[in-house]
Structure prediction request, 496 residues.
Amino acid sequence: MRRWLVLAASAMLLVGCTGQPPAPEPNPVETTAPTPTPPPRPFTVTTTEVPTTYDPAAAQTAADALVALNAFSRLMVVHPEGGALKPDLARDCLYTSPTTYQCDLAPGLTFHNGHALTAADVKFSIERAYRLSVTRSSIQLFDSLERVDVVDDQTVSFVLKYADTQFGYALATPAASIVDEELYDPDAVRPNEAQVVGSGPYQLVTTAPDHLVFERFATYTGAQPGGIGTIRVGFAPDSAAVEQAVAEVATDVVWRSLNPAALQRLEAEMEANDGATKSGFTRVDLPQIRVQRLVFHPASPYRENPAVRGAVAAALQADRTLGSIVPPTVEGSVPSFPVGGAAEVPDLGGQRLRLTLGYSSKAPGQRDLASMLRDRLEETAGMSVQLVPDTNDADLLLTDRSAWVNTAFGWLQSYVDDALPGSRAKVDDLVRRARETTDPTTREALLAEIQQQAAVDLTVLPISIGPETMLLGPGTSLQGQAFGPAWQLGLWSLRD
Prediction:
Protein backbone atom coordinates (compact mmCIF):
# COMPACT_ATOMS: atom_id res chain seq x y z
CA MET A 1 0.00 0.00 0.00
CA ARG A 2 2.83 2.44 0.89
CA ARG A 3 4.57 1.68 -2.46
CA TRP A 4 1.32 2.35 -4.35
CA LEU A 5 0.81 5.71 -2.62
CA VAL A 6 4.36 6.75 -3.46
CA LEU A 7 3.90 5.83 -7.10
CA ALA A 8 0.57 7.70 -7.27
CA ALA A 9 2.09 10.82 -5.75
CA SER A 10 4.99 10.70 -8.19
CA ALA A 11 2.61 10.36 -11.10
CA MET A 12 0.58 13.36 -9.97
CA LEU A 13 3.80 15.40 -9.60
CA LEU A 14 4.82 14.50 -13.14
CA VAL A 15 1.36 15.43 -14.45
CA GLY A 16 1.59 18.75 -12.70
CA CYS A 17 5.02 19.46 -14.14
CA THR A 18 4.06 18.78 -17.75
CA GLY A 19 0.47 19.94 -17.80
CA GLN A 20 0.97 23.63 -16.90
CA PRO A 21 1.68 25.98 -19.79
CA PRO A 22 5.10 27.65 -19.60
CA ALA A 23 5.19 31.12 -18.16
CA PRO A 24 5.21 33.74 -20.88
CA GLU A 25 8.59 35.26 -21.64
CA PRO A 26 8.92 39.00 -21.25
CA ASN A 27 8.53 40.97 -24.49
CA PRO A 28 11.91 41.68 -26.11
CA VAL A 29 12.94 45.30 -26.37
CA GLU A 30 12.53 46.39 -29.98
CA THR A 31 15.59 48.25 -31.36
CA THR A 32 16.01 50.02 -34.73
CA ALA A 33 19.34 49.62 -36.50
CA PRO A 34 20.92 53.01 -37.19
CA THR A 35 20.78 54.13 -40.81
CA PRO A 36 24.30 53.93 -42.20
CA THR A 37 25.78 57.28 -43.11
CA PRO A 38 26.57 57.34 -46.82
CA PRO A 39 30.20 58.01 -47.61
CA PRO A 40 30.93 61.61 -48.56
CA ARG A 41 30.77 62.38 -52.27
CA PRO A 42 34.26 62.60 -53.75
CA PHE A 43 35.33 65.87 -55.29
CA THR A 44 33.66 65.72 -58.71
CA VAL A 45 34.29 67.25 -62.11
CA THR A 46 31.40 66.83 -64.54
CA THR A 47 31.62 66.87 -68.33
CA THR A 48 29.74 65.34 -71.25
CA GLU A 49 32.87 64.49 -73.23
CA VAL A 50 34.33 61.01 -72.80
CA PRO A 51 37.96 60.12 -73.63
CA THR A 52 38.45 57.76 -76.54
CA THR A 53 41.93 56.66 -75.42
CA TYR A 54 44.09 56.74 -72.31
CA ASP A 55 47.31 56.43 -74.32
CA PRO A 56 48.85 59.93 -74.63
CA ALA A 57 50.49 59.08 -77.94
CA ALA A 58 47.02 58.58 -79.43
CA ALA A 59 45.29 61.60 -77.87
CA GLN A 60 43.10 63.31 -80.49
CA THR A 61 40.36 65.07 -78.50
CA ALA A 62 40.09 67.51 -75.61
CA ALA A 63 38.84 64.65 -73.39
CA ASP A 64 41.86 62.54 -74.37
CA ALA A 65 44.09 65.47 -73.48
CA LEU A 66 42.53 65.73 -70.01
CA VAL A 67 43.83 62.24 -69.23
CA ALA A 68 47.18 62.73 -70.95
CA LEU A 69 48.01 66.04 -69.28
CA ASN A 70 46.95 65.01 -65.76
CA ALA A 71 48.08 61.38 -65.55
CA PHE A 72 51.32 61.77 -67.49
CA SER A 73 54.17 64.24 -67.35
CA ARG A 74 56.42 65.81 -69.95
CA LEU A 75 59.79 67.48 -69.99
CA MET A 76 58.25 70.93 -70.39
CA VAL A 77 55.03 72.78 -69.61
CA VAL A 78 53.71 75.87 -71.34
CA HIS A 79 51.20 78.35 -70.02
CA PRO A 80 48.57 79.08 -72.68
CA GLU A 81 48.33 82.73 -71.69
CA GLY A 82 51.62 84.29 -72.72
CA GLY A 83 53.27 81.09 -73.96
CA ALA A 84 56.00 80.90 -71.31
CA LEU A 85 57.90 77.59 -71.45
CA LYS A 86 58.95 76.09 -68.13
CA PRO A 87 60.52 72.77 -67.11
CA ASP A 88 58.25 70.03 -65.79
CA LEU A 89 60.19 66.80 -65.16
CA ALA A 90 63.27 68.38 -66.66
CA ARG A 91 65.46 70.53 -64.44
CA ASP A 92 66.38 72.49 -67.53
CA CYS A 93 66.22 72.32 -71.33
CA LEU A 94 68.38 74.42 -73.63
CA TYR A 95 69.95 74.59 -77.06
CA THR A 96 73.56 73.43 -76.90
CA SER A 97 73.81 74.15 -80.63
CA PRO A 98 71.36 75.49 -83.23
CA THR A 99 70.26 71.91 -83.96
CA THR A 100 70.67 70.24 -80.55
CA TYR A 101 68.14 70.63 -77.74
CA GLN A 102 69.28 69.00 -74.50
CA CYS A 103 67.26 68.30 -71.36
CA ASP A 104 68.51 67.31 -67.91
CA LEU A 105 66.10 65.30 -65.76
CA ALA A 106 65.64 65.74 -62.05
CA PRO A 107 67.11 62.82 -60.08
CA GLY A 108 64.96 60.13 -58.47
CA LEU A 109 61.98 60.37 -60.82
CA THR A 110 59.51 57.46 -60.78
CA PHE A 111 56.36 56.33 -62.52
CA HIS A 112 53.16 55.67 -60.58
CA ASN A 113 54.12 51.98 -60.28
CA GLY A 114 57.47 52.80 -58.66
CA HIS A 115 59.61 52.10 -61.73
CA ALA A 116 62.47 54.53 -62.23
CA LEU A 117 61.95 57.17 -64.93
CA THR A 118 65.15 57.82 -66.85
CA ALA A 119 66.33 59.36 -70.10
CA ALA A 120 65.82 55.96 -71.75
CA ASP A 121 62.08 56.23 -71.05
CA VAL A 122 62.04 59.70 -72.61
CA LYS A 123 63.76 58.44 -75.76
CA PHE A 124 61.41 55.44 -75.92
CA SER A 125 58.29 57.60 -75.47
CA ILE A 126 59.11 60.20 -78.14
CA GLU A 127 60.25 57.59 -80.66
CA ARG A 128 57.17 55.47 -79.94
CA ALA A 129 54.79 58.41 -80.50
CA TYR A 130 56.60 59.32 -83.70
CA ARG A 131 56.49 55.72 -84.88
CA LEU A 132 52.75 55.46 -84.21
CA SER A 133 52.07 58.90 -85.78
CA VAL A 134 48.39 58.90 -84.85
CA THR A 135 46.38 61.23 -87.08
CA ARG A 136 45.33 64.52 -85.44
CA SER A 137 47.65 63.93 -82.50
CA SER A 138 50.33 66.45 -81.55
CA ILE A 139 53.24 64.38 -82.86
CA GLN A 140 53.34 66.40 -86.11
CA LEU A 141 54.86 69.24 -84.08
CA PHE A 142 57.99 67.05 -83.93
CA ASP A 143 58.60 67.21 -87.68
CA SER A 144 62.00 68.86 -87.18
CA LEU A 145 63.26 65.92 -85.07
CA GLU A 146 66.01 63.77 -86.56
CA ARG A 147 66.87 61.51 -83.61
CA VAL A 148 66.88 61.21 -79.81
CA ASP A 149 70.13 60.40 -77.99
CA VAL A 150 70.54 59.23 -74.40
CA VAL A 151 73.60 60.93 -72.93
CA ASP A 152 73.21 59.34 -69.49
CA ASP A 153 70.36 58.33 -67.17
CA GLN A 154 69.51 61.97 -66.46
CA THR A 155 70.30 63.57 -69.81
CA VAL A 156 68.56 63.30 -73.19
CA SER A 157 69.53 65.11 -76.38
CA PHE A 158 67.23 65.90 -79.31
CA VAL A 159 69.08 66.26 -82.59
CA LEU A 160 67.10 68.36 -85.09
CA LYS A 161 67.05 68.42 -88.88
CA TYR A 162 67.19 72.21 -88.80
CA ALA A 163 67.33 74.97 -86.19
CA ASP A 164 63.81 74.90 -84.77
CA THR A 165 63.05 77.67 -82.28
CA GLN A 166 59.67 76.07 -81.52
CA PHE A 167 60.85 72.60 -80.51
CA GLY A 168 60.42 73.17 -76.79
CA TYR A 169 56.69 73.72 -77.30
CA ALA A 170 56.35 70.27 -78.85
CA LEU A 171 57.77 68.77 -75.65
CA ALA A 172 54.82 70.20 -73.69
CA THR A 173 52.09 68.49 -75.76
CA PRO A 174 50.31 65.17 -75.05
CA ALA A 175 52.33 63.16 -77.58
CA ALA A 176 55.48 64.06 -75.63
CA SER A 177 54.13 62.39 -72.48
CA ILE A 178 56.59 59.97 -70.92
CA VAL A 179 55.48 56.33 -70.62
CA ASP A 180 57.10 53.34 -68.95
CA GLU A 181 59.28 51.48 -71.44
CA GLU A 182 58.73 48.25 -69.49
CA LEU A 183 54.95 48.34 -69.98
CA TYR A 184 54.02 50.18 -73.19
CA ASP A 185 54.15 48.46 -76.57
CA PRO A 186 56.51 50.34 -78.89
CA ASP A 187 54.39 49.46 -81.93
CA ALA A 188 50.77 49.66 -80.76
CA VAL A 189 48.41 51.99 -78.96
CA ARG A 190 47.80 50.74 -75.42
CA PRO A 191 44.23 49.38 -75.07
CA ASN A 192 41.92 51.12 -72.61
CA GLU A 193 41.53 47.89 -70.65
CA ALA A 194 45.19 47.94 -69.69
CA GLN A 195 46.52 49.72 -66.61
CA VAL A 196 47.35 53.39 -67.13
CA VAL A 197 50.83 54.14 -65.81
CA GLY A 198 52.26 57.62 -66.02
CA SER A 199 54.21 59.97 -63.78
CA GLY A 200 51.91 63.00 -63.73
CA PRO A 201 50.40 64.83 -60.76
CA TYR A 202 47.47 62.40 -60.73
CA GLN A 203 47.27 58.64 -61.09
CA LEU A 204 44.28 57.21 -62.96
CA VAL A 205 43.09 54.44 -60.63
CA THR A 206 39.56 53.71 -61.90
CA THR A 207 38.17 53.66 -65.42
CA ALA A 208 34.45 53.08 -65.90
CA PRO A 209 31.99 53.90 -68.69
CA ASP A 210 30.48 56.77 -66.70
CA HIS A 211 33.47 58.06 -64.72
CA LEU A 212 37.19 58.10 -64.02
CA VAL A 213 38.88 58.36 -60.63
CA PHE A 214 42.21 60.14 -60.19
CA GLU A 215 44.35 60.04 -57.06
CA ARG A 216 47.11 62.52 -56.30
CA PHE A 217 50.61 61.16 -56.90
CA ALA A 218 52.33 62.00 -53.63
CA THR A 219 55.90 61.83 -54.95
CA TYR A 220 55.33 63.90 -58.09
CA THR A 221 58.11 66.49 -58.30
CA GLY A 222 57.15 68.39 -61.44
CA ALA A 223 55.85 71.91 -61.96
CA GLN A 224 52.13 71.19 -61.38
CA PRO A 225 51.49 69.20 -58.16
CA GLY A 226 47.88 68.33 -57.36
CA GLY A 227 45.98 69.79 -54.41
CA ILE A 228 43.04 67.38 -53.91
CA GLY A 229 43.57 63.77 -52.86
CA THR A 230 40.86 62.10 -54.98
CA ILE A 231 38.99 63.54 -57.96
CA ARG A 232 36.12 61.86 -59.75
CA VAL A 233 35.56 62.90 -63.36
CA GLY A 234 31.96 62.02 -64.15
CA PHE A 235 30.49 61.78 -67.64
CA ALA A 236 26.98 63.20 -67.92
CA PRO A 237 24.76 62.11 -70.82
CA ASP A 238 23.75 65.63 -71.85
CA SER A 239 23.45 69.29 -70.91
CA ALA A 240 20.20 68.71 -68.98
CA ALA A 241 21.93 66.26 -66.64
CA VAL A 242 24.76 68.72 -66.06
CA GLU A 243 22.30 71.53 -65.29
CA GLN A 244 20.54 69.27 -62.78
CA ALA A 245 23.88 68.43 -61.13
CA VAL A 246 24.49 72.16 -60.70
CA ALA A 247 21.05 72.71 -59.16
CA GLU A 248 21.51 69.80 -56.74
CA VAL A 249 25.19 70.56 -56.02
CA ALA A 250 25.99 67.02 -57.14
CA THR A 251 29.27 68.22 -58.64
CA ASP A 252 32.03 70.66 -57.78
CA VAL A 253 33.19 71.66 -61.25
CA VAL A 254 31.50 71.78 -64.65
CA TRP A 255 33.80 71.69 -67.66
CA ARG A 256 32.20 72.69 -70.99
CA SER A 257 29.01 70.56 -71.50
CA LEU A 258 26.24 73.20 -71.07
CA ASN A 259 24.27 74.22 -74.16
CA PRO A 260 23.47 77.90 -74.84
CA ALA A 261 19.96 77.74 -73.33
CA ALA A 262 21.24 76.22 -70.08
CA LEU A 263 23.98 78.83 -69.89
CA GLN A 264 21.47 81.63 -70.33
CA ARG A 265 19.33 80.27 -67.49
CA LEU A 266 22.32 79.97 -65.17
CA GLU A 267 23.66 83.39 -66.13
CA ALA A 268 20.25 84.91 -65.31
CA GLU A 269 20.50 83.33 -61.86
CA MET A 270 24.00 84.74 -61.45
CA GLU A 271 22.87 88.24 -62.38
CA ALA A 272 20.09 88.06 -59.79
CA ASN A 273 22.29 86.59 -57.03
CA ASP A 274 25.49 88.66 -56.99
CA GLY A 275 27.36 86.50 -59.48
CA ALA A 276 26.35 83.04 -58.23
CA THR A 277 23.60 80.58 -59.13
CA LYS A 278 20.95 79.71 -56.55
CA SER A 279 23.06 76.67 -55.63
CA GLY A 280 26.24 78.74 -55.27
CA PHE A 281 28.08 78.11 -58.55
CA THR A 282 30.21 80.83 -60.15
CA ARG A 283 31.56 81.06 -63.69
CA VAL A 284 35.24 81.27 -64.51
CA ASP A 285 35.84 83.82 -67.25
CA LEU A 286 37.48 82.07 -70.22
CA PRO A 287 36.84 84.45 -73.13
CA GLN A 288 37.78 83.88 -76.76
CA ILE A 289 39.26 80.42 -76.45
CA ARG A 290 36.59 78.19 -78.05
CA VAL A 291 37.22 78.16 -81.78
CA GLN A 292 34.82 76.58 -84.27
CA ARG A 293 36.33 75.47 -87.58
CA LEU A 294 35.15 73.41 -90.54
CA VAL A 295 37.74 71.04 -91.97
CA PHE A 296 37.69 69.06 -95.22
CA HIS A 297 38.58 65.45 -94.49
CA PRO A 298 41.83 64.56 -96.33
CA ALA A 299 40.16 61.45 -97.81
CA SER A 300 37.02 63.23 -99.03
CA PRO A 301 36.60 62.97 -102.83
CA TYR A 302 35.45 66.61 -102.86
CA ARG A 303 38.57 68.03 -101.20
CA GLU A 304 40.62 68.18 -104.39
CA ASN A 305 37.91 70.14 -106.22
CA PRO A 306 38.56 73.90 -105.89
CA ALA A 307 35.00 74.75 -106.96
CA VAL A 308 33.54 72.67 -104.11
CA ARG A 309 35.91 74.18 -101.55
CA GLY A 310 35.08 77.65 -102.87
CA ALA A 311 31.34 76.99 -102.76
CA VAL A 312 31.48 75.81 -99.15
CA ALA A 313 33.55 78.83 -98.10
CA ALA A 314 31.33 81.31 -99.96
CA ALA A 315 28.11 79.82 -98.59
CA LEU A 316 29.36 80.29 -95.03
CA GLN A 317 30.97 83.72 -95.43
CA ALA A 318 27.91 85.68 -94.26
CA ASP A 319 27.84 83.78 -90.96
CA ARG A 320 31.58 83.78 -90.34
CA THR A 321 32.74 85.80 -87.32
CA LEU A 322 36.36 84.61 -87.30
CA GLY A 323 38.73 85.78 -90.02
CA SER A 324 41.70 83.45 -89.57
CA ILE A 325 42.41 79.87 -88.58
CA VAL A 326 44.69 81.40 -85.92
CA PRO A 327 42.60 83.11 -83.20
CA PRO A 328 43.10 86.89 -82.94
CA THR A 329 44.23 86.50 -79.31
CA VAL A 330 47.32 84.55 -80.45
CA GLU A 331 50.50 86.36 -81.45
CA GLY A 332 50.99 86.17 -85.21
CA SER A 333 47.30 86.01 -86.14
CA VAL A 334 46.43 87.86 -89.36
CA PRO A 335 42.89 88.34 -90.79
CA SER A 336 42.90 86.44 -94.05
CA PHE A 337 39.34 85.16 -94.69
CA PRO A 338 36.49 87.47 -95.73
CA VAL A 339 33.90 87.91 -92.99
CA GLY A 340 30.25 88.87 -93.63
CA GLY A 341 28.75 90.27 -96.78
CA ALA A 342 27.54 88.37 -99.81
CA ALA A 343 29.91 86.05 -101.66
CA GLU A 344 29.58 84.67 -105.17
CA VAL A 345 29.24 80.89 -105.08
CA PRO A 346 31.27 79.08 -107.78
CA ASP A 347 29.34 77.15 -110.40
CA LEU A 348 29.23 73.44 -109.59
CA GLY A 349 28.08 72.47 -113.09
CA GLY A 350 24.45 72.03 -112.19
CA GLN A 351 25.16 69.10 -109.88
CA ARG A 352 23.57 68.78 -106.47
CA LEU A 353 26.44 67.29 -104.53
CA ARG A 354 25.91 65.01 -101.54
CA LEU A 355 28.26 65.66 -98.64
CA THR A 356 28.43 64.43 -95.05
CA LEU A 357 29.14 66.75 -92.13
CA GLY A 358 30.47 65.27 -88.90
CA TYR A 359 30.17 66.84 -85.47
CA SER A 360 30.46 65.84 -81.81
CA SER A 361 27.13 65.15 -80.12
CA LYS A 362 28.80 65.68 -76.73
CA ALA A 363 30.23 69.13 -77.42
CA PRO A 364 27.86 71.88 -76.25
CA GLY A 365 25.88 73.50 -79.06
CA GLN A 366 27.57 71.51 -81.84
CA ARG A 367 24.38 69.95 -83.14
CA ASP A 368 22.71 73.36 -83.51
CA LEU A 369 25.73 74.87 -85.24
CA ALA A 370 26.03 71.87 -87.57
CA SER A 371 22.35 72.24 -88.48
CA MET A 372 22.85 75.91 -89.28
CA LEU A 373 25.87 75.15 -91.47
CA ARG A 374 23.89 72.47 -93.31
CA ASP A 375 21.06 74.93 -93.98
CA ARG A 376 23.47 77.47 -95.46
CA LEU A 377 25.17 74.91 -97.68
CA GLU A 378 21.88 73.56 -98.96
CA GLU A 379 20.22 76.96 -99.48
CA THR A 380 23.20 78.90 -100.84
CA ALA A 381 25.47 76.31 -102.47
CA GLY A 382 22.78 73.89 -103.67
CA MET A 383 24.26 70.90 -101.85
CA SER A 384 22.64 68.06 -99.94
CA VAL A 385 24.34 67.67 -96.57
CA GLN A 386 23.80 64.76 -94.21
CA LEU A 387 24.69 65.35 -90.54
CA VAL A 388 26.62 62.45 -88.98
CA PRO A 389 27.33 62.63 -85.24
CA ASP A 390 30.55 61.38 -83.65
CA THR A 391 32.53 60.41 -86.72
CA ASN A 392 35.93 61.30 -88.09
CA ASP A 393 35.17 60.09 -91.61
CA ALA A 394 32.73 62.69 -92.93
CA ASP A 395 33.55 64.96 -95.90
CA LEU A 396 33.42 67.98 -93.60
CA LEU A 397 34.29 67.93 -89.89
CA LEU A 398 33.04 70.60 -87.51
CA THR A 399 35.51 70.92 -84.68
CA ASP A 400 35.87 73.09 -81.61
CA ARG A 401 38.98 71.32 -80.36
CA SER A 402 41.73 73.75 -79.49
CA ALA A 403 45.24 73.49 -80.84
CA TRP A 404 47.67 71.27 -78.96
CA VAL A 405 49.62 74.36 -77.95
CA ASN A 406 48.34 77.94 -77.96
CA THR A 407 50.78 79.36 -80.51
CA ALA A 408 50.32 80.30 -84.16
CA PHE A 409 52.21 77.15 -85.15
CA GLY A 410 49.89 75.05 -83.00
CA TRP A 411 46.75 76.52 -84.56
CA LEU A 412 48.15 76.17 -88.08
CA GLN A 413 48.84 72.46 -87.61
CA SER A 414 45.46 71.24 -88.90
CA TYR A 415 46.10 73.09 -92.18
CA VAL A 416 49.83 72.43 -92.47
CA ASP A 417 49.59 68.69 -91.78
CA ASP A 418 47.25 68.13 -94.74
CA ALA A 419 48.22 70.84 -97.19
CA LEU A 420 47.00 70.36 -100.75
CA PRO A 421 49.49 68.68 -103.11
CA GLY A 422 49.93 71.87 -105.10
CA SER A 423 50.67 73.88 -101.95
CA ARG A 424 52.70 71.35 -100.01
CA ALA A 425 56.18 72.46 -101.03
CA LYS A 426 55.41 76.14 -100.51
CA VAL A 427 53.76 75.61 -97.12
CA ASP A 428 56.54 73.34 -95.86
CA ASP A 429 59.14 75.92 -96.85
CA LEU A 430 57.25 78.75 -95.14
CA VAL A 431 56.81 76.73 -91.94
CA ARG A 432 60.46 75.73 -91.81
CA ARG A 433 61.67 79.28 -92.33
CA ALA A 434 59.23 80.60 -89.72
CA ARG A 435 60.46 78.05 -87.18
CA GLU A 436 64.12 78.64 -87.99
CA THR A 437 64.22 82.40 -87.71
CA THR A 438 64.99 84.16 -84.45
CA ASP A 439 63.73 87.51 -85.76
CA PRO A 440 60.13 88.17 -84.59
CA THR A 441 59.32 90.47 -87.53
CA THR A 442 60.44 87.90 -90.08
CA ARG A 443 58.52 85.18 -88.29
CA GLU A 444 55.30 87.18 -88.26
CA ALA A 445 55.62 87.91 -91.98
CA LEU A 446 56.06 84.20 -92.74
CA LEU A 447 53.14 83.24 -90.49
CA ALA A 448 50.99 85.80 -92.29
CA GLU A 449 51.87 84.24 -95.64
CA ILE A 450 50.90 80.78 -94.38
CA GLN A 451 47.52 82.10 -93.22
CA GLN A 452 46.94 83.81 -96.55
CA GLN A 453 47.72 80.58 -98.38
CA ALA A 454 45.21 78.81 -96.11
CA ALA A 455 42.59 81.32 -97.24
CA VAL A 456 43.40 80.41 -100.85
CA ASP A 457 43.30 76.65 -100.34
CA LEU A 458 40.11 76.66 -98.18
CA THR A 459 40.68 73.22 -96.66
CA VAL A 460 40.28 74.61 -93.11
CA LEU A 461 37.61 77.27 -92.65
CA PRO A 462 37.29 79.47 -89.55
CA ILE A 463 33.70 79.83 -88.35
CA SER A 464 33.53 81.54 -84.96
CA ILE A 465 35.29 82.20 -81.68
CA GLY A 466 33.71 82.51 -78.25
CA PRO A 467 34.05 81.82 -74.52
CA GLU A 468 34.56 78.45 -72.91
CA THR A 469 32.37 77.25 -70.04
CA MET A 470 33.72 76.45 -66.58
CA LEU A 471 31.65 76.58 -63.39
CA LEU A 472 33.00 76.23 -59.85
CA GLY A 473 30.76 75.03 -57.03
CA PRO A 474 30.60 76.39 -53.48
CA GLY A 475 34.00 76.34 -51.79
CA THR A 476 35.87 75.38 -54.98
CA SER A 477 38.67 77.52 -56.39
CA LEU A 478 41.58 77.50 -58.83
CA GLN A 479 45.18 77.95 -57.82
CA GLY A 480 48.18 78.69 -59.99
CA GLN A 481 48.18 77.92 -63.70
CA ALA A 482 44.90 76.10 -64.19
CA PHE A 483 45.19 74.90 -67.76
CA GLY A 484 47.28 72.89 -70.18
CA PRO A 485 49.19 74.26 -73.20
CA ALA A 486 46.00 75.24 -75.06
CA TRP A 487 43.41 75.73 -72.28
CA GLN A 488 42.85 72.04 -71.50
CA LEU A 489 41.57 71.48 -67.95
CA GLY A 490 44.26 70.84 -65.34
CA LEU A 491 43.04 68.87 -62.32
CA TRP A 492 46.20 69.99 -60.52
CA SER A 493 44.82 73.50 -60.11
CA LEU A 494 41.58 72.60 -58.29
CA ARG A 495 41.18 73.30 -54.58
CA ASP A 496 38.28 72.64 -52.19
